Amino acid sequence: MMKDAFGGIVLSTSFRWLVPFSIVYGVIILCLGEYSPGGGFQAGALLSVGVLLSRIILGWDTTFDVKGTTSVWLAGAGTFLYAFTGWLTLLGGADYFLDYNFFPIHIEPMHEMHAWSIFLIEIGVATCVMMTIINLLEAIVKRSEENVGSN
Amino acid sequence: MRGLVAVLLAVVTGIFCSYVTFLPKIGDVNTAPNQHVTPTYISRSAEDTGSPNIVTGVIIDYRGFDTMYETTVMFLAGLTTVLVLTSNTVGRRPEKGADEPEGGAIIK
Fold first, then answer.
1. Is there a domain that residue A1 lies in?
2. Most CB atoms closer than 10 Å: which of A21, A115, B14, B41?
3. Does the structure's ipTM exceed the value 0.85?
């Protein structure tokens, strides 16, 4: 189903225009999550749109892609980054998990350190969400292709 | 028998529901969360967390442990869905004399 390119010249051209904007918007939502509505979860969903569209429109062998098992371990790595931030605060001498006052890298004033820790965590969340969505698409496409092949 | 159990469950649920009268109304100002926690979050979020967005401050900083396991649950749910979807045994009639089918196509 998705091995072949889906779109013609109109879809391919609009893809080239749409995807950069959606990726830039995802990065903005990720970076400004502390100041405006948004954050890791929404940014991850937006960032995955680019890869999904490239797979659907340009076909299975597009170059703009996350290949094979990379998305699986990156999803785990995103979750690990969140927990790792908590461990970093514990290593810094905190009594509680994710107590940002004890983040090992000291930045003055204190609330700036909180903001950077929040950003680190949101990168982890965004990676996990993005790669999980790509995983799901990959699984669904693989299954439908197998069914087509067996019939 | 099953019908009887269902009727019994419905009656018990109705009795429970009719006796719950002590729950506060939604949005009531005089409830405990609206008296203590919410004003504290609103007044101290900016200086505590360094984030002008109160929602981000609450979910990542005050309730960071909760959000960590939300992310973990989502990752595990996605991983399980991928494993179920790519396994060849689920939802197929087993063929006679076929060898042991392979596991996940993505994760091996």
1. no
2. A115
3. no
Domain boundaries, position A139: 9-150
Is B13 at the interface with chain A, CB within 8 A?
Answer: no
Close Cβ partners of A110 (under 8 Å, ≥ 6 residues apart): A101, B50
* Closest residue of chain A to B83, computed from CA coordinates: A139
Contacts of A112 in chain B (CB under 8 A): 50
Number of domains within chain A:
1
**What pTM was estimated for this model as a whole?**
0.77
Residue B103 touches chain A, beta carbons under 8 Å: no
Interchain pair A132, B74: CB under 8 A: yes
With contact defined as beta carbons under 8 Å apart, do A123 and A30 qualify? Answer: yes
Q: Which residue of A has its CA nearest to B51?
A: A34
